[in-house]
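chain below, 263 aa
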Amino acid sequence: MNKKAIVLFAIISLILVGCQHGSGLSSKKLGAIAGGAAGAITGYFASDENKELYALGGAVAGAWLGGKIGQYLEEKDQQKMTETSQKAMITGEKHTWSNSENKVSGSAEVVDETTETAEVEVTVLKDRVQTVPPLDMIGEPYAVSSNLKVRGGPGTDYKVVDRLAKGMTVDIIGKVQGKQWLMTGSNQTGTGFVHMNYVQKVPVDQREASHAMAVAPAEKTEVQTVAAKRTCRTVKQIIITEDGSEREEEITACQGPNGWEPI
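prediction:
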């Protein structure tokens, strides 16, 4: 099966899954599924290069709009609203956008924030991660500031399982509670631990879309349930349409292994 067929199959599967389970979902979550599918299709045909990358990014991003508010926006404005909502969720600050061509504008701001302890499932590479201690969830990219050893656990007494070069970007799943160690990840899978003194969070405006990579075979991974502390935020999305009317909707997301995940 060629790459194009694989991506289109993934898009169709996303739509079918949403329809199959539609009877048990709220209209808001159905909107998110529709938004994700639409985002995937839009992303796939948006560029002649890195189509798989855009499709996967579109599917994730589309779920951030969903609901009813997206129906009042054109494709380009949907993308702006999605980006604005994601930035507001990550930074906790208000973000705005506008389209000078059609006079449509929008904003997103956090209206509620809570911190909770919950059981979170984390997939890890069995041959590299020796332990998964309680975590403070992060789910964001970090830049490596110096050549760095990745260890199988949160301490120098654990074996070295990988090395990162200065200048690389690595996904951070979470911080080990009570220690200055971070769990690294790749393609939604935990890969080891690094000391937090040698990495820095990548600013939101400097982040790039991640390239789609093959998922590790199931026999090489295991899912561990850990007690994790995570922040949940509710963002209010507001748009002002061409006729001057105002629409609003709220979306709630919590920190997870792969970033801020809408719930």
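The longest strand covers residues 104-125. The mean pLDDT is 79.
thats it, cya
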